[in-house]
Amino acid sequence: MTKLLHEFRMDWVALSAAVVLPPTTEHQAAMIQRAKEFVSTVQGLVAQETKDWATEFQSNMAQMEKDLKVQLDTLKAQVDKEAKDKVAAAKPGAIELTVTNAAQTDSFSFDVVLEGQSGKSLDSVSNATVWTRINIAPGQYRISVNAKSKGNIASTSTIVDVKPGETVKPSVTLPIK
């Protein structure tokens, strides 16, 4: 546009220099025609630039919408995965403890103490070699087994790691003499 403005000014000076006073109708018509051409050319350039800008803007907006959709879909998938992982990690497990020599205890019985993050629990088992507990929160637990054999106390313990949705199956043998 700067080039067009310079050309118009130079042409205007040239047209003005050729004018005799009073200007003839032909000189007036030539000056008016040159001004019309200048205005028309500038308006055409502005319209084309505006059209080009609008096309580029729409293209950029469309690309940005695509990019945002991809980012949103990726983020949604990540959030869904994290939510599923969180649910899976919180799924309770179970413990199935076998006391291999429980039959050698007095009255065929033993006590089990389960210690974990939520505290301690005590269960007594009679006429069985297996103690079970379901709905155990994932984590580490200490299991202590106590029994009497021939009047003497026998104790042992073990550590178990309960995994989400799994059953851990430890086995212990009481130190019976």
What are its keywords?
177 residues; Immunoglobulin-like; four-stranded mixed sheet; 2 helices; 8 strands; rod-shaped
Question: Secondary-structure map with pairings?
Answer:
Elements: H1 2-17, H2 25-90, E1 93-99, E2 109-116, E3 119-126, E4 130-136, E5 139-149, E6 152-162, E7 167-168, E8 171-172
Parallel strand pairs: 1-7, 1-8
Antiparallel strand pairs: 1-4, 2-3, 2-5, 5-6
Helix pairs in contact: 1-2
Q: Can you give a write-up of this model?
A:
The chain is an alpha/beta fold. The protein folds into two domains: 2-87; 93-172, Immunoglobulin-like (Sandwich), CATH 2.60.40.10. 46% of the residues lie in helices and 32% in strands. It is built from two helices and eight strands, in the order H-H-E-E-E-E-E-E-E-E. The protein has helices at 2-17, 25-90; strands spanning 93-99, 109-116, 119-126, 130-136, 139-149, 152-162, 167-168, 171-172. The strands form two sheets. Strands 1, 4, 7 and 8 form a four-stranded mixed beta sheet that branches. A four-stranded antiparallel beta sheet has the order 3-2-5-6, with no helix packed on it. A hairpin with a 2-residue loop joins strand 5 (139-149) and strand 6. Helix 1 runs antiparallel to helix 2 (25-90). The longest helix is centred in the N-terminal third of the chain and has 66 residues, at 25-90. The N and C termini lie far apart (107 Å). The mean pLDDT is 94.
